[in-house]
UniProtKB/TrEMBL annotation:
It comes from the Bacteria. This is CBS domain-containing protein. It holds the Pfam family CBS. Residues 81-106 are annotated as: Disordered. Residues 9-69, 101-158 form the CBS domain. Keywords: CBS domain. InterPro entries: BON_dom, CBS_dom, CBS_dom_sf, Diverse_CBS-Domain, UCP036990_CBS_BON. The keyword Aminoacyl-tRNA synthetase does not apply. The keyword Transmembrane helix does not apply.
Length: 227
């Protein structure tokens, strides 16, 4: 059975209403020791995420409010000159979570696999995903740290899961998440299947293939072409 987001997510979620003030958001980030939180509406539906980066837009664009005495970072000055401020200047004017947040939020669902959640984090360059139900309401949050938990599965648990998937086939040894498959199987294709199944068990760090086979049933496709 594959590990799902529900198995590793945090349900005690720090979140803010879209009407929450700048100070409320900042206080919550500091109090909970997190770098970002989901923003929800009055029905607890996720609208976006507000992060430390969103709040720091106030500082980055401070020159607009306090005159030339303040010199913003070079990155901000270049963005001003190039006219590529994007949403940063808009966020610098924001006073509520709804105005500060990045939207739409990248979310996942409780029944999604941890593999899909990890891919989604990587694709969008985010550190966490709000977890929502079918109605888009917040039910949890999953972070990169939560996903790493799957690698804390015991060697015994990993071995049992592989044996369930490969009953009576290869020899299986597990040490600190590294799986070694050994023995003689009937077919080459069975060996390939065994390795792939072991690699797909959650918590497996690597698979060492020491399998052999009695019959090579992998037929190479002929190469066609003229001389």
């Amino acid at each position: 059975m594959r590990t799902t987001v529900q198995d590793v997510m945090t349900t005690d979620v720090a979140a803010v209403n879209e009407k929450a003030s700048f100070h409320t958001v900042a206080d919550l980030l500091i109090e909970r020791g997190v770098s970002g939180v989901p923003v929800v509406d009055d029905d607890n539906r996720v609208l976006g995420v507000v992060s430390e980066t969103d709040l720091l837009a106030k500082e980055e664009f401070k020159e607009r409010y306090y005159g030339d005495a303040y010199r913003p970072p070079l990155r901000a000055r270049l963005r001003h000159t190039a006219g590529s401020e994007g949403s940063g200047y808009r966020k610098a004017q924001g006073e509520t979570a709804g105005a500060l947040m990045t939207s739409p939020a990248r979310t996942t669902t409780p029944d999604a696999s941890v593999v899909l959640a990890a891919r989604r984090m990587d694709r969008y360059g985010v550190k966490r995903l709000p977890v929502v139900d079918d109605g888009g309401r917040l039910v949890g949050i999953v972070s990169r740290r939560d996903l790493i938990k799957v690698f804390l599965r015991s060697d015994g648990d990993i071995e049992r899961r592989i044996r369930d998937a490969l009953p009576g086939e290869p020899g299986i040894a597990v040490s600190e998440g590294v799986v070694t498959l050994s023995g003689v199987l009937d077919e080459h294709s069975h060996a390939i299947r065994a390795v792939r199944l072991a690699e797909n068990v959650d918590g497996v760090v690597a698979v060492h293939d020491e399998l052999s086979w009695k019959h090579d049933d992998i037929v190479e496709m002929p190469m066609w072409g003229g001389a």
